Amino acid sequence: MSAINGADMSIQDSSGEQTGGPRKAGGRLIVLTGPTAVGKGTVEAALRHAHPEVWVSVSATTRAPRPGEKDGITYWFMDEQEFARREAAGEFLETALVHGMSHYGTPLQPVLNHLAAGVPTILEIDLQGAHRVRQRAGELGLEVFYVFLAPPSFQDLVTRLNMRGTENEEQRARRLETAKVELASENQFDRVIVNDSVDKAAQALWEVISKEYGL
Questions:
Q1: In this protein, which residues make up the domain named Guanylate kinase-like (predicted)?
Q2: For the sheet containing 92-98, what is the strand order?
Q3: CB-side exposure of 186: number of CA atoms within 13 Å?
């Protein structure tokens, strides 16, 4: 079972006591999304390297870890049974079945805690997850700014997915079909950033964050 209730899942108040229970968000949540293989994780890592004060939510997933990935850092890895139990208990802000293969979800309480503390907070999630955040934002009192990370071209996306080498041919074909649908929805977002350069994309994302948080 994943140590999802570990230190990264919550923050402490000034008295040293761990915060608990739902809290109204005190800042604007930044949602970063985009199609498969567009480089969301790479841009997010570049952003955090340059601006470590930004907190990026760690998603939960039922897929198997890839080489080099670590539980609680890359994702909270868990089996389908644990994921379903936590989903039923209302522990996720959003969940999605991605490419018909694996479940992903955003643990809710850490997001609420960091926003309430005024920490710049980002979700890096797929398009399904972004739509589900839209559906729940009102009931949770969340103010959200949605950013879509786009490739320079669809062929660039194909090349990136092939170079990644983490999916078989059937999985790549499924992901690319999904990506075509996702790319058609980019006009639904507050800001579109084209990832033709990781550093430029990370800087553009920081400009969004600094404006929204008054940094």
A1: 27-210
A2: 76-77, 60-61, 102-107, 92-98
A3: 14
Supply the pTM of this predicted model: 0.78
Tokens of 43: 């841009």
Domains of the chain (ranges, CATH numbers): 23-57+111-213 (3.40.50.300)
In the predicted structure, residue 123 carries a pLDDT above the cut 70: yes
Which pLDDT score, from 0 to 100, does residue 25 have?
Answer: 39
pLDDT digits 0-9 by tens, 92-114? 999 988 777 899 999 999 999 99
Detail the residues annotated as belonging to a binding site: 34-41
81, burial (CB in 10 Å: exposed 0-12, middle 13-18, buried 19+)? exposed
Is the Cα torsion angle 141, 7, 30, 120 positive or negative in sign?
positive
State the alpha helices, DSSP H only, in 13-107.
40-50, 80-88
Positions at the binding site for ATP: 34-41
